């Protein structure tokens, strides 16, 4: 046995001279560098006591070192557990308690708060990684010797745990295996004709399935190159297009690019492919982008639990508003949400998927896992959709209460609980409203306690300490009462 996933991402010696990563600060890494550095990170993890199946929880900025840590984790046989950099220490506390990592790695500037959390939950090691000096973990890794042999991992071994927000306020850790990640990257490489000639503008965060398992894994597996940007900036992205061939983004990337005068046919002439996903791309955006650049954005659909499920075709028609056809190996059906009975083409129902991409279940939540799978192994996605006559899939809404803002998921319940805990608040309803830039924006409707005065700014300021910035309401509207239906459910 060898390491099922890492053996496909780490290049053999004959490919070591190929360029892999380029950073805007001028740093460059070849495939040989990535092999050597990630081997040292794996060895350092092993020296920290990390073994097969252990979790390594990581909340760090997007740097090449963060990528070496991810690869090092796989090579050490551990499960990589990336955490959104926007999460506050109060939020991190839950993830650490729930996942019981062997190591917690945080940003140097957050060392105090995170070390405290690590101590409180008896995490054996706390390390830092980040600028300016690399942090304690980089020092540990770089100081070690070469000569690491990857830990054997089979297809069913755990490669990563990614937390999805829970509709009831409790986050669930989606367990992804080596086979999940490898099979999905292989399917996408074929579907998108991704090759070693490609140069990706990598502007997505790497704590999410899109930036890590789609963008980074595909590039590494194909031995392509990536321009590794710390974050998305439309001007910077345009400045790199002459050197690139592919961009992967959330719809907000494209609406922001459209705001730039520099987005022209000429600027994008050398690009091969623009991909969008993680939230619905409006047909208007698709049309405007095509008009300005001549490129038809390729939209795909996936989620943390499943990786990518569908994609518009590379050669065939890319239909605006549709998320395309199931990827090879992925079975997708639309069912009656209540009975689970498969529905005829054209009818709207619950989207369910089965395939090598579908996760192994929620971390330490066997009941929750069981309730989201059908007996025949199909996973109930929570997305409502239909399949048209040609087999294209259309997403029409979400069965689960969810707001997607700028590609990030916000569960209204979590924000409502935080608001309701504030003094002066009787109750609240959090909804998504159309937002030109983010697709949807979070808005809160609040009923104050009798006689209490609440104002928009004070509410947002108070929430800032408890919630990641993307979850904060952009508007707070104060009302006397919430509209309710006959069953007393709030009519959002
Ligand atoms: P996440 O687990 O953060 O990747 O979020 C997954 C959810 O994002 C899915 O269940 C869908 O509701 C939504 N999503 C992903 N891609 C698309 C898309 N292309 N169009 C519409 N919704 C999407």
Write structural notes for this entry.
The protein has helices at 6-9, 31-47, 64-75, 89-99, 111-120, 135-142, 178-191, 209-222, 234-240, 251-258, 283-293, 366-371, 412-420, 456-464, and strands spanning 19-22, 28-30, 55-59, 79-82, 103-106, 125-128, 158-164, 172-177, 199-202, 225-228, 246-249, 273-276, 298-303, 307-311, 325-326, 331-335, 349-354, 379-387, 393-398, 403-405, 408-410, 425-435, 439-448, 475-478. 28% of the residues lie in helices and 25% in strands. The protein starts with 5 loop residues before the first helix and ends in a 14-residue tail after the last strand. It contains 14 helices and 24 strands. The radius of gyration is 23 Å and the shape is globular. Bound molecules: adenosine monophosphate. Adenosine monophosphate (AMP) binds at residues 164, 209, 277-280, 299, 301-304, 323, 381-383, 395, 398, 404, 409.
Largest sheet: 9 strands, mixed
Specify the structural class.
alpha/beta
Question: How widely separated are the two ends?
Answer: 53 Å
- Helix share, percent: 25-40%
Order of strands side by side in the largest beta sheet?
2-1-10-9-11-12-13-14-15
Secondary structure: number of strands: 24
Number of helices: 14
